[in-house]
Amino acid sequence: MTAAYPEPIDLAAAGVECDCSKCVAMCRNVPCRGTPDEIQQAIDAGYGSQMYARKWVDLDEYYLIVGPAIFGNQRAVASYVVEGTCALLTDDEKCLLHGTGFKPLEGRMATGCDKEGDVQVGYLNELIESWNTPEGRAVAAEWVDRFGRP
Ligand code: SF4
Ligand code: SF4
What is the number of the ligand 2 atom nearest to the C-alpha of 68? Predict the structure, then answer.
């Protein structure tokens, strides 16, 4: 089943650079997350080595969420909760994925200018759960095979 996610405003198409401090603060804290389909497309576009996988524990099982890595953790399979700057944030505080069509949903939803600083979060549980599906597990397993480091 394909989840129905909210459609973020396409700020890149509107010519907005997206390097304001209130959104970049998110990129400096924890990288955004995307759906398995989005992340697979970004991997296919060559960004797989800039990603990491986070173990997400759900009761007695866990699954992996692959996405943009915290700098220094590229290609890691992290079983710990870490905070840090996204590896795809440039030194001049721009997202390398902005305008490429591969920015993950959570990053595209962080439209601080549109909602007076409020970030929509209602879709996040569904996004996270999308990795606990056959499709999500397959994307994660293939990423681990190709890019994961011990
Ligand atoms: S979404 Fe709005 S506030 Fe956030 S970086 Fe882009 S232009 Fe700036
Ligand atoms: S991928 Fe882009 S929007 Fe997402 S956290 Fe990294 S720099 Fe920010």
Answer: 1
pLDDT in tens, the chain (150 residues): 456 787 777 888 888 888 888 889 999 999 999 999 999 999 999 999 999 999 998 777 889 999 999 999 999 998 877 789 999 999 999 999 999 999 999 998 876 666 554 556 778 899 999 999 999 999 999 999 999 987
Q: How far is the CA of 31 from the centre of ligand 2 (A)?
A: 6
Q: Looking at ligand 1, which atom is closest to the CA of residue 114?
A: 2
Residue 82 near residue 22, CB atoms below 8 Å: no
